[in-house]
Design brief:
Length: about 210
């Protein structure tokens, strides 16, 4: 992994086609929420399939916790869609068939020249693609458990949401004065918009990346 991909740095804002072949920009998928990105070897890997089974079960918690989940794979469109459908996954799979991410992040799994895949990684992001945690999943036990992701997202959310503890008298006074800038999402957008973003529909995102 590139030496600058560390907590506190910004993860690259890649543009890749999704499982419907529509170009998507990571920052559009994230909006202003936390996000987990899974860089996967692909459908052939039993470790990846098992990890995704756990992520699919965990996904409903991510939705109510206002956290997006995105997979990036070097599989082709057909293989990625087969895996997504077999898993029952309702989050985007982005396709890196040209190995753009693999090469840019320097995560080519050189021990597997047959498949030319990425070394699996899981990246936990705060808003604005700010890196909170990086997991190297070359060995299965290097991948985060769902309990660890829960802990990471608790820490990340506590750091970025000023209204984490609304029992704080100062927060209550601000709310009573209708000063909602410190309250998320009330100070930045509507709850309706937030719930729409978490609904899982492909057309929810701000726009196609190829439309500017």
């Amino acid at each position: 992994m590139r030496s600058d991909i560390v907590p506190g740095a910004a993860f690259p804002d890649y543009v890749l086609p999704d499982h419907t072949q529509v170009p998507r920009r990571l920052s559009d998928l994230q909006s202003d929420q936390t996000m987990v990105i899974v860089l996967t070897r692909g459908a052939f890997c039993p470790k990846d399939r098992h990890h995704f089974q756990e992520l699919v079960r965990f996904h409903s918690q991510l939705i109510v916790g206002f956290t997006h989940l995105v997979a990036i794979t070097t599989d082709d469109w057909h293989t990625a869609n087969n895996m997504r459908q077999q898993l029952g996954a309702h989050f985007p799979f982005l396709l890196d068939e040209e190995r753009k991410v693999q090469q840019d992040l320097d995560i080519k799994e050189y021990t597997d020249p047959e498949h030319d895949v990425m070394i699996p990684h899981t990246i936990v992001l705060k808003p604005d693609l700010v890196i909170h945690k990086v997991y190297n999943g070359y060995y299965y036990w290097g991948r985060p458990s769902m309990a660890e992701l829960h802990q990471d997202l608790r820490e990340a959310t506590r750091e970025v949401r000023e209204d984490w503890d609304i029992t704080d008298p100062a927060r209550r006074a601000e709310w009573d004065r209708d000063e909602k800038d410190r309250f998320w999402p009330y100070g930045s957008k509507s709850m309706e918009r937030t719930l729409t973003e978490m609904a899982g529909a492909v057309d929810q995102y701000a726009g196609r990346a190829d439309e500017g």
